[in-house]
Amino acid sequence: MAFQGKTKRALQEFPSPEELYLSGTLPRTTAAVDGLWLHQGDVIRAYAEHHHKTPDLALELPTGSGKTIPGLLIAEWVRRKSEGPVIYATPTKQLARQVLATARREGVPSHLLIGSHKRWNVVEQSAVEGAEAIGVTTYSGIFNSSPKLPMPRLVILDDAHAGEQFVGGEYGITIRRYENPEAYEVVLDALSSFLSGLLLQRLRGQPDPGAHHQVRLLLPAIDPMALAKFDTALATLPEPFKFDFAMIRSGLGSCCVYLSYGGIQIRPMIPPTFENRIFSRSEQRIYLSATLGSGGELERAFGRSQIVRMPLPTKTPPRTGRRLFVFPDLAMGGDAVGLTKRIIAVTNKALVLSQETSAKTEAAAAALAGDSTPVMGRDDVEQDLDVFAKAPAGVLGLANRYDGLDLPGQACRIVVLGGKPDAVGLQEKFLSERAEASAALAERLRTRIVQGAGRCTRGPNDYSVVVVLGSDITRYFSRPDNRGALDPELQAEVAFGWQNSRGADPDEVIENVEIFLEHDAAWREGGEPLVAEFRQDAVKVEAPGADALGSSAAPEVEGWHLAFRGDWVGASEQLQEAARRVGAGGESTRGYRGLLLYLAGVWLHLGAEDETQRARARELVRQAAAASDVRGIWLKEMPELPGAEAVPLVSMDVVAVNAIVARLRGQLRPNRVNDELQKMREALAQDESKAYEGGLTALGSFLGAEASKPKGQGRCDSAWEWGTAIWMTIEAKSEQHSDGMLPLHDIRQANTQLDQLAGDRSMDHPPAGSPAIIVSDRLTVDPEHAPAANTNVYLASTEVVEQIAGDISTVWSDLLTSASGIQAEQTLRQYVRSVMTEHGCLPSQVINRLTQNRIRPGD
After folding, report:
1. Cα 188–271–125 angle (5° rounding)?
2. Strands 110-112 and 134-138
3. Distance between alpha carbon 52 and the CA centroid of its chain, in Å?
4. Local confidence band at 696 (pLDDT 50, 70, 90 cut-offs)
5. What order do you get walking across the sheet with 284-289 strand by strand?
């Protein structure tokens, strides 16, 4: 008899996921964990008691403390209640396979639904849809233009702190010039009406210092005809761009365009996840995160107005291993890469993480590996990490993979964090480098660093060396506010590592690494007690502006969703409210507030029905300029709203433009000027101090300043004065190499230079806002010395100075060619203003470029 009757039995239910686990009902294998950690039981018990119906819930389980098993137990407990399908999502396919392996080990029925739905097993897909098993998928399996997953009762999102990269990035188009030059040209042509002829020329030619590193913001919705042309161009792009375009086409007018020489990114700042039925219509979404923070990062990343945070209950999780931080840039000798290579040679095995492209990251890994050490990359570990984890030696280089890599025990003992991961994508690069809105990225940046540092410490008995390589990430750790936002245990490890790297002999560093990796009595008795001393003084303090950013997240999310639907007035009102809340963060959130106000003004203009609303839109744009002050240089590049008066130049810029116009109207010899420009650039490209100082003074003159080298001992190397509007003194330390930290006497010397200059001019004090700049490739300052700096003392690299020199050379080349044909004084003045603005060479722009790194913390 082939027929069968009813075989499906009702599943036994339990009061909580913890009791389900303890009941022995799950068919766990012999490889299953011995039992739940105390904090894991606390979390799943609290969920059942208080949050079973909370629509959006974030559970904090620090990296290495075990997120997967609590997530799977919650998923299985809900599934057994027969309330509907359950989906468990991870950022990558590799992680999805890891979750499936854990589920089967722990006796949780699960099936893998990744890749094309056409290749899914029909029986397994039906089992998930019938709530007979949990569906394990990736974020992209949910967030795509046509998801094929069943409508779930519950969605669990593992490693939710990576949401911006794997969710926000899905709602947009990213075109990399060197990968898709044809697509880049098509989109650039469609955007040409928003760009000046000068900028187009720079973007279509060979990269120059200015065009190559800058990111421009464009809002095509301002011009309906241009927006239609833009839409048509995007619709012609081939795969995979056409699928990406489908995600945003209905709300294209709300999208920002981030344009650089190297690529173009088109996306809304906050993803319109309300359009995704799998995500938005599920009864509950649970976000498993290593760090929750209070800055609204989860809400912005997933496009949800409110996510309830359930931090760990009262009990503290076990320590997830021990890390020895090493800062090669602080050691003696000036060879940070060489020292890192020696550290890796201790075990001949390391993981190298970077925000660069895969090719550059893998090249960096190759440079750090020994001559006979295998080098691996993304393609080698696409399926799983075993090829690296089980290899006796090897250096694995991965780009933008700060999450979801488990290398416990002997799998790997060394992690290299190559550079500060604060510009993953053009949107982040614009926010951090142009809009001065890095406060909005602080939580994201901190999470990436914490996650990256924890890749090889996955349990209480693990231990690994964390090599912090690069001046930018070393500077990050030098700032007390950045350290203070870390958990106390991590603060202690960083402080201990800093103390033992600063000025250390490389041989001593290697000896310390060897002692740590042996992890025997010498470390337990000589190292561990010292880390404990640092731990006693460590207290976690939220980063500046975190509370203000957290409170603004809800209106921001609602505003972007309304804009995507085309409700411009409603969207503007929400962003105005968000800007008001962000303002509570003070100076730390000033740049972000300016950006919100500008967008609110543009959106109100797009939806305005009368002159009152249009006038209010223009007022919001003026408020944005006031909020951003000289920091909001990007605002000078944005088109003015119809009816708006031209934004007047600030006084320092007026002085510069007038000085350059006067020089152009004088007895000018173009060939001599070109020779001077060439000599200036050559001087600023070398280390020798006398030549460098002369190059600085020449640079100041070409920028429209009265530039000179003040006479006398201990005076600055170059002084730039734009009348009485603003001054700048520059201490050039061009002969310093990048090793070590900026000496204290350099800071003290810079403190006095502006006052001495004022004394020369018989003035009581220099003009307000005047900065003192130290130019050096030693871009790290000892936290103990930083408070000695005046609040107007900044540190800039020689590279930034070279970029400015390249830009002003381009300005003068243009002026020498074009200015002679302009007769009217006012027309010439406007042209000079335009060219200098385009190349970032107005004094307000130059000061912005040179004052990105204030030495004194907390100001």
Report:
1. 115
2. parallel
3. 34
4. very high
5. 110-112, 134-138, 86-90, 154-157, 284-289, 56-60, 308-310
77, two tokens: 């407990």
- Residues counted in the chain: 859
The alpha helices in 122-196, defined as continuous H runs, are 122-129, 139-142, 163-166, 181-190
Contact between 241 and 234 under an 8 Å Cβ cutoff? The reply is yes
Query: What is the per-residue pLDDT across 161-193, written as a single tens digit (0 to 9) for each?
Result: 888 889 988 999 999 998 999 999 999 999 999
Q: Which residue has the higher pLDDT, 316 or 247?
A: 247
Rounded Cα distance between 541 and 539, Å, is 6
Percent of the chain, pLDDT > 70? 95
Confidence of residue 203 (pLDDT cuts 50, 70, 90): confident
Rg of the chain's alpha carbons, rounded to an integer? Answer: 29
Question: Which among 613, 602, 607 is positioned nearest to 569, based on CA atoms?
Answer: 607
Between strands 263-267 and 173-176, the pairing is antiparallel
| Predicted confidence (pLDDT) at residue 5 exceeds the cutoff of 60 | no
> Where would I find the H helices in 351-396?
358-368, 386-389
Least confident range of 311-320, 585-594, 769-778:
311-320
Sheet harboring 772-776: ordered strands across? 706-708, 718-722, 726-733, 772-776, 793-796
Strands 263-267 and 256-259: antiparallel
Question: Which of 176-184's residues contact partners 24+ apart within 8 Å by CB, and which partners?
Answer: 176/262, 176/263, 177/261, 177/262, 177/263, 177/264, 178/262, 183/237, 183/238, 183/241, 184/263, 184/264
Phi, psi of 214 (to 5 degrees): -90, 150
Greatest alpha-carbon pair distance for the chain in Å reads 110
Q: Is the pLDDT of residue 411 over 90?
A: yes
Q: Cα-flanking dihedrals φ and ψ of residue 798, to 5°?
A: -65, -25
Q: Which of 630, 575, 615 is nearest to 599 (CA)?
A: 575
Do 168 and 297 touch, CB atoms closer than 8 A? no
Query: What angle in degrees, to the nearest 10, is found between the helix axes of 38-50 and 68-80?
Result: 40
Note the Cα 430 to chain centre separation in Å: 10
Tell me the one-letter amino acid at 46: A
The 3-class SS string of 530-599 reads HHHHHHHHCCCCCCCCHHHHHHHHHHHHHHHHHHHHCCHHHHHHHHHHHHHHHHHHHHHHHHHHHHHHHH
* Digit-coded pLDDT (tens) for 477-536: 988 888 988 889 999 999 999 999 998 999 999 999 999 999 999 999 999 999 999 999
- Peptide bond just before 240 cis, omega within 30 deg: yes
The percent helix, strand, coil of the chain (3-state, each to 5) is 50, 10, 35
Backbone angles phi, psi at 693, to 5 degrees: -60, -40
pLDDT higher than threshold 90 for residue 365: yes
Q: What is the percent of the chain with per-residue pLDDT over 90, rounded to a whole number?
A: 62
Residue 571 CA to residue 272 CA, distance in Å, equals 13
> How sure is the predictor about 6, in pLDDT bands with cuts at 50, 70 and 90?
low
> Could you say which DSSP state residue 439 is in?
G
d(CA 192, CA 187): 9
Structure tokens at 813: 């080349």
CB 607 within 8 A of CB 591: no
Note whether 331 and 506 are within 8 A (CB): yes
Q: What is the mean pLDDT of the chain?
A: 90
SS (H, E, C) 215-270: CEEECHHHCHHHHHHHHHHHHCCCCCHHHHHHHHHHHHHHCEEEECCCEEEEECCC
Residue with tokens 């936290």: 783
What is the pLDDT, as a whole number, of residue 679?
95
Distance (Å, whole) CA 767 – CA 726: 5
* Residue-level pLDDT at 758: 93
